[in-house]
Amino acid sequence: MSENKFESLEKEVLELIKLSQQLKEVNEHLSKKNQQLSQENNQLAKNLNTAKEGIAKIIKTYKD
Known about the structure:
Blueprint: H1 3-63
């Protein structure tokens, strides 16, 4: 293998390693954000269920 081809491949490998690291960091960030949004969604679902139960009780009280 010629020296130029080797250097070119070496440069490409280094660029791919750098890109791989960047993708890993982005993936970690997105994973954390997804976890946070999932927790927020669960809390909102609980709040919604609590509100629905309260509204149902109020409606039942006025019907009776």
